[in-house]
Amino acid sequence: HGGIFSAKYAHVSRLQFRAVYTLSKYIDEGTTNTASPQDLSDRRAERALSLQDQRHRFTISGLFRMPRTELQIAPIVSFGSSRPFNIGAGFDRKLNDIENDRPNFLSPIGRPEWRRPQGKPATETKNNLALSPIGSTGSLPRNYGLGPGTRTFDVRVSRNFAIGEHVKLRTAVD
Questions:
Q1: Cys-Cys link to 155, which of 59, 75, 134, 172 (CB 3.0-4.6 A)?
Q2: Between 34 and 171, whose confidence is greater?
Q3: pLDDT score for 34
Q4: How far apart are CA 141 and CA 88, in angstroms?
């Protein structure tokens, strides 16, 4: 499910802006080429937020044509909300030769959030999870962790050169 809202602005031929906001929710059953279900006979139990789920995303882009030099500068700035991540047991507890088993809840916890490697340890979360018994699957839902938000900045500088009457060469640096 999702929706996209966008706005454009152009001033003559030297300046253009575009802003885009995306609101979405992406649910799947983990059937990508990088994920296998924890229990091969119960795909429905795998239904959860996708690794690709990003609830909010805001992007601003533009094109500036510089006078006299004919340089074109095209920046893109993007901000996105967090994406889920999977919390695994680290090895095969179900004994099905697939190392994607998850731990069990000992008590209800909120969604664990990503932390920087040198950050405060997630002691409360760790104390509320336990390995599932050998031969069984864990009760923690797939992609239950909450990852960091995203932000990117990209810029392209380019210029066109006329080579003869019908041929143009565009040079660009990203």
A1: 75
A2: 171
A3: 57
A4: 10
Mean pLDDT of all residues in 10-22: 90
Q: Model pTM?
A: 0.74
SS (H, E, C) the chain: CEEEEEEEEEECCCEEEEEEEEEECCEECCCCCCCCCCCCCCHHHHCEECCCCCCEEEEEEEEEECCCCCCEEEEEEEEECCCEECCCCCCCCCCCCCCCCCCEECCCCCCCECCCCCCCCCHHHHHCEECCCCCCCCCCCCCCEECCCEEEEEEEEEEEEEECCCEEEEEEEC
**Residue count of the chain:** 174
Phi and psi torsions of 40, nearest 5°: -60, -20
